[in-house]
Amino acid sequence: MSLNVIDLIKGQLGPALVSQAASQFGESESGISKAIGGLLPAVVGGLANNSDKPGVLDAITNASSSGILGNLIGGASSSPVISNLLTSIFGDKISGIVNAIATYAGISNNSSSSLLNLVTGATVGSIGKYAADNNLDKSGISNLLGEQKGIVSTLLPAGLSLASLNIGDWAKGYRFDNDNDAVRPTPSEEPKIEVTRSMTATGTNPDRNNNEGGGSIWKWLLPLLLLIAAAYFLWKQCDKKQTTTTTTTVDSSASKTDTAATMTPADTSASTATPMAKTDENIDLNGVMLKGYKGGMEDQMITFLKSGNYKNAADDAALKDKWYDFDHVNFKMGSSTELEAGSQGQLDNLVAILKAFPEAKIKIGGYTDKVGNEANNVKLSKARAEFIKAALAKAGVGIQVLEAEGYGSKFAKVDPKASDAERAADRKMSVRFAK
Predict the structure, then answer these.
(1) Rounded distance between C-alpha atoms, residue 302 and residue 285, angstroms
(2) Residue 396's CB: how many other CB atoms inside 10 A?
(3) pTM for the complete prediction?
């Protein structure tokens, strides 16, 4: 009986790691466990379907000495080897897999993406260790992976399928059912059979042209049917036009009413206080997709680093005027140690960016509004900046955080008598590149 490598890998993804990942990603343990259950067969299937690729075999062979199994949560999420491997086996399907698992397990896309890297690291690390312990060469690893094709699809948990992960048709099929390809009809055979039957039934009937009565009926019946169809079409168009005109008139009236309403002082005030809604999108970090706003902090920082502007900056003075505001990281009112729900994901994104660009250094800044005692505001903003610095150090990128500074209300712009919603713009955490 061949080895089930999924059983081999599960030893690396036990309750302790699930608990650690749940704490790190801000998710429930049940959600993390459910996501891993869906990702593991998909990753093994991807490797099995590419077991003849030199890059895949190299990644597995080198994994045993990389130490990745000892640092799955920290190391796998930022490893370029893992990122390149995922791109090699899944291509442009990565975001589809991440989205499907996030929906299935009830976790964020950021957590799903991190778990995909983690599970991939555990998989190649475990297989690489097994290969090293049992003296398997690349040919042996390829054969081991090939043996998994018959079982992978059956190990997906209820509610998931290869098709639901958007990889069912990738690389000709994920056909892990052991059917004999020699007797399997190709996708093009069925349409060809249907077309042939259709032509035989209606297009080549020898009795049709010999039936003069039938031919004479069609001479007047076909034009009549066409005329009826044309009349029906014209009637529907007229009816549609009338409906559209009526609707337009109503909408135009409503539009005028809304325009007048927005000119009143009350509506203008409400409009100022309500920010435009933003939607998270995939931000490409060297093949790894982060969830963030288009044009938001992550997008701007990655663009700046890829442009070479950081590398080419002569000194810190050339960088000090450009700050990037966190879109999601917020502290609970009056606290410097408790983040609001949803903040952890963007901190994880910042960690991923710093790990992808290890030469980059940053500085953290904390800010408050103009309300309250300024000395207390400076102290609070400083403590919040230090909290983020400590969190980044805990995540393994502390050496890249040069300083954490609190500025209080020094740069606040909104009048202290303004509404709390308006003053929220001054209460923020920011980051800038530094040297």
Answers:
(1) 7
(2) 17
(3) 0.41
Cα(425)–Cα(420) distance, integer angstroms:
9
Q: Can you tell me whether residue 169 is helix, strand or coil? A: coil
CB 404 within 8 A of CB 385: yes
Cα 6 to Cα 123: distance, rounded to the nearest angstrom: 8
Token digits of residue 219: 């001479």
Tens of pLDDT, residue by residue over 236-291, are 665 544 444 444 333 433 333 333 333 333 333 333 334 445 677 889 998 889 98
What is the Cα–Cα distance from 3 to 242, expressed in whole angstroms?
70
CA 352 to chain centroid, in Å, comes to 14
- 3-state SS class at 414: coil
**Calpha distance 45→148 (Å, rounded):** 7
Handedness of CA 311, 315, 316, 317 (dihedral sign): negative
Say how far apart CA 13 and CA 39 lie, in whole Å: 12
Written as one string, the DSSP assignment of 288-308 is: EEEEE-TTSHHHHHHHHHHHT
Type of residue numbered 88 = S
Report the DSSP beta bridge partners of residue 366. Answer: 406, 429
- Per the document, the length of the chain is 435
